[in-house]
Amino acid sequence: MTDDTPVVPRLRDEELTASGRHRTTQIYRIEIAAAPERIWAAITEPGWTERYGYGGRAVVEPRVGGRYLVEKPPHLRMVAGDGTIPAPDIIIEGVVTAYDPPTLLATEMRFLVDPDSAQEPATEVRYEIERLADGRSRLTVTHDLRGAPHMAAVVSGDFESLGAGGGHPYMLRDLKSLLETGRTLRETGGGRHGNL
To answer: Start and end of every Activator of Hsp90 ATPase homologue 1/2-like C-terminal domain (predicted)?
Structure first.
């Protein structure tokens, strides 16, 4: 049996400069066989957010100016060159900047999971949901990462081989799997992380 405990490494500056893909704006799109209302629930309701991705419980106050928090998943641990270090109980904190169910959620947030990222400025994440034909929807995630190179490295998925996870690509694939099949990528054998 393998250990599927989520692990977040502490990235060193030389690892960050090794890749040129950490653009200041990252945009991801995925089509999901689900109505916008189901996708909205999956990204805003704690009972859903615990079921896919890294398993963090998101708390979204349903209004502009409301709090946005993601609690540490129960088994999340961080590793550094000298061993495991504790992750904070709240790994993401921020504020809701746009709230228009079921089509638009935007948050300005800080990534607190490691000391380097916690020192970076807040970044904006926009979730835009568009209804398509045949019961499908398109989810577009736009992440403005100006001034946040550590967070950019983690959410891009580029450092998955170092244990940083698959970032937004993994989260979106796992969400798609859960909404379309009722099972996560781990449950379907699709792996712990993945790319779009």
So the answer is: 34-180
